[in-house]
Amino acid sequence: xxxxxxATSNRKQMNTSQFRDEFDRGQRDFSYTNLTGVDxxxxxxxxxxxxxxVLWKANLEGTNLSKANLKEANCSQANLNWAVLSLxxxxxxxxxxxxxxxxxxxxxxxxxxxxxxxDLEGANLSRGDLEPTFRTxxxxxxxxxx
Length: 146
Known about the structure:
The chain is mostly beta strands. Residues about 1-10 and about 135-145 have low confidence and may be disordered. The relative contact order is 0.12. Helix content is about 5%, strand content about 15%. The chain is globular and about 35 Å long. The longest helix is centred in the N-terminal third of the chain and has 9 residues, at about 15-25.
């Protein structure tokens, strides 16, 4: 499968169908890949490598990302409602303005993440290692503003 290379960001760029083709062929390493706006909703992507990937405005609703590597990934404005991120590695990931409503973040390692304006209402944060880089009045868990 041919994918384009984005010279300005030095990242391979893939659309939804390209991603699904590569995934169906057994590829599990999508680190440093630009996946802006892809629709991966409902897929089983457990243990996938999305390290430093760009998932900006991606639709990951209901996706299984358990034990995935999301370290330094840009998930800003992504739809992760009802997604499973249990035991995922997400250190320094960007979840700014992401939708994580009812997401399962059980046991996630998310030190240094940006959750600015993220919707975490109803999310399962039990046993998660969450230490956001900063807190603002718009950063809230379970619908309660801090």
